Amino acid sequence: MRFLVSMELLPSDRRELDSLWGIEPLGLRVRALSERLEPHELGRLLIHLNQRRGFKSNRKGESDKEQKGLLQEISDHEAKMRADGSRTLGEYLSSRHVAGVDARGTPMVRVRGLHTRRSMFEDEFETIWTAQVAHHPTMLTDELRDGLRRLIFFQRPIKPPPKWLVGKCELDPAQKRCPRAERPAQRFRLLQEVNNLAIIDRSTGEVRALTEGERKIVVDLLSKKDKATFDDIRKKLGFLESVRFNLEGPEREKLKGHETDCKLAGKNAFGKEWWTLPEATRDKIVEILIEESDLDKTVHRLMTEVSERKMSEETARRIAPLNFPEGYASYGRETIRRLLPHLERGLKMMGNDATDSALHAAGFLRPDQREVKTHDLLPPPPPLTNPIVRQAMYEVRKVVNAIIREYGRPDVIRVELAREAKMSFEQRKQLRFDNADRQRARTVAREEIERLGFKPTGEALERYVLWKEQGEECIYSGRTISPAQLLGGEVHIDHILPRNRSLDNSKMNKVVCFRDANAEKGDRTPREWLESSDPKRYDEVLKRAESLPFGKSRKFGQKEIVLDEFIARQLTDTAYISRACSQYLKCLGASVETQRGQMTADLRRLWGLNKILGNSEDHKDRSDHRHHAVDAVIVALTNKKRLHALANGNIKRIDPPKDGFRDRVAEKIRAIIVSHRVRRKVCGALHEETFYGATQKRASEGRMPPGGETRKWAKGWIEEKAAFVRRKPLSSLTKATDLEKVRDATIRRILEDHLRAKHIDPSSRAKLPKGVFEGENTPTMPSGVPIRKVRMIEESETIQPVSERRSYQNVKSGSNHHIAYYEVVERGRKKWEAVVTTMFDAARQVKPAVPEGGRLVMTLSIGECFAAEDESGVPKFYIVRKMDQRSGRIAYKEHTDARASGELNEDNLVFGASRLMEAKARKVTIDPLGRVRRAND
Question: Could you give phi then psi for residue 211, rounded to 5 degrees?
C-alpha cells in the first residue's frame, strides 16, 4: 500500500483512502477492460488483486489427494469462463455476482471463497495493464509493471531441509542418508522385504523361505505396483488360503512396491513409456523431481538436463507436480549401491557372515561387531532423527552418568526398554487404543464375574478374557465351557508351548481348556501331542485355532522348542531402539544385555513385590511411578543363570536372592523421591488461533476502535471491561442459551425465533438437536441472506493485543510459562501474591508487574517440584501440573502419581498462594538419583 501511495496510485489522505474502500472492486475490474480508470481507482483494483492472488502450487507442499478436489474446482471455473466468453476472471465473477438477485435486488450468488489459480489473476493483471497503458502512458511504465507484478504475485518457494538436518548413514557416517524416493532406495527396501519373506503353512506349521522362482515372481510383481496385498501375492504364487506369510498380520495387510516408478508410469505421467527409458535417464528424472521444489525450475531442468530423452514442455509440466515418498532411508546412496547386488542375489540384509548376509558380503559389520571407543562417562549420544529415541538416549545419559559419578562404572548393564519407544507415532496411537480396549474387556469381565458370585482375581479375569477370545469353548476338545465350569475349577489355563521349555508366559501363549484335556496334553506342544497319535483330532484343533490371533494360532503348528534360543531372545532384542541404546552404552566398556520383559512379571509376583506400593491385589500398580524401580530390581536380577533355573525347575521354588530381600526392596522403593522432567522452554502455542475484537465504547467512556467514528449504528454499544467479540460458525453452538452471547441484538432475535419455529425453547439449557442451524435449517436475514456465522461476546482478562500496531487484533493467551510467588506486607501482615507469566509474554520477554515492595519467594514451572508440610509438619513432595492465570492457583500431584490427567482432574488438587504460605512451601530440585536439594530462585 505504501508503494502505491508513493506512486500516486492511492491517496495519502486517510479520509480519501477510506472512501475508496466503498467502491465495488469487481465493477472496477470489468470497467478497466474498456474504460479509463482514475489512478486511485486503479490502485484500489490492484489492492483487490493483491488480497486474492489465487492458488499456486508449491508442488511438494500439498499431496495429490489434497489438491485433487481443489484443482478440479479450478478447472471447472476455467471451463465456465470460456463458455461464458469472459475475458478475465474479474469479468466472470462479476457476471456471477449479479446473475442472481432477490426481489430487493440483493445479490444471492456467493463469489467469495471460490478456488482460483494464480495464473488467472496474472493474466487479468496483464490484460488490465495493457488496456490502461493507453490512458496513462507516462505513469504506467514497464518498470512499474514489473515491480507491481512482483509485489502482488511473488510467492516464496519452499526451501529444502538444510543438509545438517539430514541424518548420517548408519554404516558410513561420512555419507548423508539417501532420500527414500530415489529409485535405488526404493529397490533396496523392496528387495529387503521380499528376502525376509517366509511362507507358513497353517495346516502343518511348516515355515520355509521363498524359492528363487517364487522370490522372482514377488519381486517382479512389486516392481510394477506401488503396493500388493498378501492376497495378491498368494494368488500370483498360486497358493491356497491356508498359506500365510511371516510378515502378514492384522496390522499389516500388504507390502509396499516401487512407489516412485509406479507414480511415473501412471497415466498422468509417462505411462508405459517409462519402462522403456534407460536406467540412467530414469534416475536423472527422479533426482531432479526430488531436488527441486519450484515448479518452473523443475520444468526447466527436466527439459535441459535430461539429455538422453528430449522432453517436451507439456510432459515436463505434467510430471513436475508429482509427489513422492518423503523422508530418508537409513543408509547413504553409495552404501545402498554396494548392498544392492547382494540383495538381488537373495541374501538377507543381516546374518552371520558373507554367505548369508548382504551386510557382510558388501564389506560391512553388524553394530555389535564394531569396535567401540570406551569413555569414563557417556558422551553426547549420536545424532538420531527419531525424536522418541533421541530423548530416550539423553535421559539414559543423564541417569547413567549420575550413577557413575556416585558409584563408579558398572561391570554389567541390563536394559529393558518400553515397547512404545521403538514404535512410530501411529503405532503408539494404535497401542493406546488396544490398551483401552483390553481395559474395557477386563472391566466387563470383572462385572460379569462378580455377578456370577465369584471373586474377580487376576487369574479369574485372565480366564474370562481367554474364554471369550476362544468363543467360550475348549480349544483342545471343542466342548462348550459354561461360566460355572470356567470359574469353578474344571477349566485350566494352559501354555500352548510348555512354559518350562519356552519361558513364554505371555497371553499369546495361553488358552483355556478342560482339566482332563490339559492333563492329557501334559508337557508337550499340540503338535508333539497329536500330530502322530491322533492326526484327525490335531486337524480339528488347528481349525479351531485359526479363529485366534495369528501369533497365537502359529504356536499350535510349531515343530520344536529350543530353550537356548528362547533364553537368547530374552537377553537380546534386535529392535532398533534396543540396538541403538545398547551400542551407545557399550562405550562405557561394560557388558550390555538388552532383554525382553516376559519373566519380569513372574518374578515380581513370585517374590511378593507387587504389593510393596500398597496395592491390595497381586498385580502391577501402574498408577505409581515407582513401579519402574520395582521392575529395575527384577531386570537387574534376570540373568542367564536364573532363566535356566526357571526353565529347569519349579518356578514356585525359585527363592529370592537373599533373606529379607522383599523388606529391603520395599524400604528402598518407598523412600524414592521421583524426579520429573521440567518444562521451562518457551515452546508450544503462544496464543489461541482465533482473533478477538475489542467491543465498541462511547467516546466519553474509553478509546474508540479505529474507524469507530464512522460506524453510526454502533454508537450506543457499551460493554464492560475485558469484553471482546469473536466470529463463530452458527453450527458450533451447542445450547440454546449460547444465543445470549450473540453480539447483535437483531441477529439474536432472529435466531431465537428460528428455534421457536423448530419447537425449541431459546431459554432451555438442553443440548441443541444436530443440524438445527445447518443445511435446509440455515436461518436467514429478512433480505434472504443466510446466517452462517455470528459474533459472540467473550469476557476474559487474559485477552491482549497481538502488537501495539494492531490493537484491533487481540488474542487469548495459550499455555503459561511459569508462576512467581512474592511475599508482601499488607497492614502489618505478611502474605503471598501470585503472578503468572504466559508463554506469549515469555516469548516477547515482557516482564510481569511485580507487587510493590514484594520479595520473590519462588517461581514454579510445569514439572517442577515443591515441598509443602502436611498437618503434622512432615514435608510432602508435589509436582506442578498446570497453573491458572486469573486465580494464581496451581494444580499439583504427588511426585509418585502416574495417573492420567483425566483422573487427576477429578481429584481437584490445587494450591492457592495463601495455602502454599501456610504449608511453608519451598521449591526443590530432584536429581536423577532422587536426591533432594533446595532450589535457589
Answer: -75, 165
